Amino acid sequence: MTFSKKEQFSIAVLLLIFILLALLNLFAGKLFYPTVYPPVDFDSIVIQFQAESIEEKTSKSFEYTNPETSSAVNKLTPFPFNPNMLSEEDWKKIGLSERQIKGIKNYEARGGKFFRKEDVKKMYTISEAEYAILEPFIVIPTPEVSRKKVEKEERKTTQEPTFESPKAAFDQVFELNLADSLQLIQIPGVGPWTTHRILQYRNILGGFYDKKQLFEVHGFDSSRYNQIEKHLVIDSLLIQKIRINHLSFKELIRHPYIDYALTKTLVNHREKRGFVKSFDELGKLEGYTAETIKKLRPYVRFD
């Protein structure tokens, strides 16, 4: 059987196409190079993405790793209170919702009373995170104190008014790393909100080693500092140190003295070269200036 020239040409073209396709399939892996990320670089990209998300979230004063506590902190504005004598308006000032207040008032309407701080925790409308914030501010007088208060009020109504001598100047001194809200709020110039901010900053900082660190508390100025400085002492041995070789990116970035850039530098160094063993070695990393090392020295452990 013979083919015409046109048929022979068509067959030749088809054969050429088949050969080209076969060659293309054979050498495709060499002609087109897939993008391959080294393990360390890829890990750093993931870490950077996570850190940028964290940085954006923390800038809004919300800790997404602990949303319940963060929501409670942002919601509540507590001050010292006796839950047995609080009006609906005062509960609103503290930050409770109408549903929560209604639950408390229903409890009181049925004859319920708060005899201990823990009784507030039993209210189903108040979460554990909210109770943890409210607990230091709850003041429930003992029966003896309450009785004396009633007697004092009765004397006021039956006796002639008397003139009491002025109160002695406040002269108490508190250890700043141990003081609770009820102690701090006694100091002239320290209100409920300032107390809350001091304790919140102390918690994320790990403690104070210098009174002047109070200037780092949001809203703190020299006038307030001069008022309260003489009522405070500091024991730097009470500071809680951080193990920078073991904490995760999220945990490191929470410390006020370790920002995003410093955290990224430290984590990348740990990935590529291992643990940091001393302040001298830490000071050689990018961004860790002499001033930064000075601030971190009381808070860092290398073990």
Topology:
Blueprint lengths: L4 H27 L7 H20 L8 H9 L12 H7 L3 H12 L7 H5 L6 H7 L8 H16 L15 E2 L5 H4 L7 H14 L16 H7 L3 E2 L8 E2 L5 H5 L6 H14 L5 H4 L7 H7 L3 E2 L2
Parallel strand pairs: 1-2, 3-4
Helix pairs in contact: 2-13
Short note summarizing the structure:
The chain is mostly helical.
Give a structural overview:
The chain is mainly alpha-helical. Among the domains are: 46-60 and 241-303, DNA polymerase, domain 1, CATH 1.10.150.320; 76-137; 174-232, DNA polymerase, domain 1, CATH 1.10.150. It is 52% helix and 3% strand. It contains 15 helices and 4 strands. It has helices spanning 5-31, 39-58, 67-75, 88-94, 98-109, 117-121, 128-134, 143-158, 181-184, 192-205, 222-228, 249-253, 260-273, 279-282, 290-296, and strands at 174-175, 232-233, 242-243, 300-301. The protein has a two-stranded parallel ribbon with strand order 1-2. A two-stranded parallel sheet has the order 3-4. Helix 2 runs antiparallel to helix 13 (260-273). The radius of gyration is 33 Å and the shape is elongated.
How do the strands of the widest beta sheet line up side by side?
A: 1-2
Tally the helices: what do you get?
A: 15
> How much strand content do the residues show?
under 5%
Low-confidence stretches: 33-43, 45-63, 157-168
The main pleated sheet reads as: 2 strands, parallel
